[in-house]
Fold this sequence. Notes:
Elements: E1 2-4, E2 7-9, H1 19-25, H2 39-54, E3 66-67, H3 69-78, H4 81-97, H5 100-104, H6 106-125, H7 138-158, H8 162-166, E4 181-182, H9 184-192
Antiparallel strand pairs: 1-2, 3-4
Helix pairs in contact: 3-6, 4-6, 4-7
Amino acid sequence: MMMMRRQPQLLVKLRSLNRRSRNILSLLPEILIGSMCCIHLLIFYRQILGDVLLKGRMSMQSADFISNPVLATFPTLLEQPDVMDALRSSWAEKENTLKRSEKRDGEFLKAVFLLVYHDCVVPLLHSTLLPPFRWAEEETESARWKVIADFLKQNQENKGALQALLSPDGVHAPFDISEQTYDFLGEIRKKAV
């Protein structure tokens, strides 16, 4: 907000979208507040959610927990922009190595996205070395960026997160089944309250 003549004003910039951006945004809800640079990651999340809800369940009336770490952790990821940036950069690196024909195959892209997500986000979200996210706290942000940068560098050198996960130096939070399961009905109950 800018102060003009003592009255606050909100400036909103609107621009026309190119065809590629329109096609991407057509896969998302009509109202969405967020950064354009993470839209393609949100599209992958929604496609995975759709696949799991429509194809991966025994019946449409099933109220069982859904075992999927991406669905369980992506909402938490959206609240941590630095880890989201790590995912975005890791995905961009991986996407640059793909062939043109592979980039056109949607199912292949989803599978590669899942691999990148498991190599980058899941270990970071469960790492005890990563301080809790606190908005606008410079010391915490710089400490988090250092841990994230070190982890990404180690991932690049070792061609994946397996080495970091199995290393005695890497300390992770204890396993909790709720970190791996998505409770679809629980999400609806939370929104109703």
